[in-house]
Amino acid sequence: MIVNFNNDYLEKLYLGLSVKGKPRYQGQVITKFKKTILTLKNAEDLKQIKLFRGLNFEALKGDYKGFYSVRVDYHYRLILGVDQNKVLVKEVLTVEGLTNHYK
After folding, report:
1. Are 68 and 80 in contact (CB under 8 A)?
2. Distance between CA atoms of 55 and 49, rounded to whole angstroms?
3. Are 66 and 58 in contact (CB under 8 A)?
């Protein structure tokens, strides 16, 4: 699966680049975030992501209608957009943000 980032901060975190200022997330959250992105990249399609119950892939409601989320850990969710490229017949995930689910 192809994973793009719509959030520069998260893209830098994933690539291991330095970010300015105080870190927004603890080291454990960043490690689990990177692991989640790798899991998404290794999936063949959305069906395979849905079968992996640990991710808890689900459609969102309200302000995030049209987006999906996967679980990074108990508190954090990764917000995703899904695009389908009909020429390549691949689904492209766009990382929109990383939110604290219970705040």
Report:
1. yes
2. 7
3. no
Q: Helix 8-15 and helix 27-42: axis angle, to 10°?
A: 90
Q: Round the CA-based radius of gyration of the chain to a whole number and report it.
A: 13
The predicted pLDDT at position 32 comes to 93
Domains and their CATH numbers in the chain: 2-17+30-100 (3.30.2310.20)
**DSSP output for 39-55:** HHHH-SSHHHHHH-GGG
Q: pLDDT tens, 30-80?
A: 999 999 999 999 988 888 899 988 899 999 899 889 888 999 998 899 999
CB 9 within 8 A of CB 67: no
